[in-house]
Amino acid sequence: MTYSIIGLDHIQLAAPEGCEVKARHFYNTVLGWTEIPKPEILRKRGGVWFECGRHQVHIGIQKDFVPATKAHPAFHVQHLDQLREHLIHNHIHIVDDGARVEEGVRRFYINDPFGNRLEFLEWV
Q1: Which of 61, 67, 105, 120 would give a disulfide with 100, using CB separation of 3.0 to 4.6 Å?
Q2: pLDDT at 22
Q3: What is the CATH number assigned to the segment(s) 10-123?
Q4: Domain extents in the chain
């Protein structure tokens, strides 16, 4: 084999047309992720991109949008309890999942403003 896949560059979440204001509020203001400029050639498509740790999360426009309610990205977090309190303070509904506690994983789910499922987890 001559190629090597070395990891993730970005993930893309779909959202409806006109989502940019809500996306910026949620991903930038609530989660604290830095917005990064899209390449000029892609700006006309709409959507918005963010930096999350060493990776990027792209919010892309999808016609006939349907949220991803099962498939989801999982974000590795330090100080999960602090994130939890921050989200609750911002009126974000938390769904706990203790299925992996015996493995040393604490986690919960939330939905973004468009109904996409997001997982946040911490290895303890």
Answers
A1: 105
A2: 98
A3: 3.10.180.10
A4: 10-123
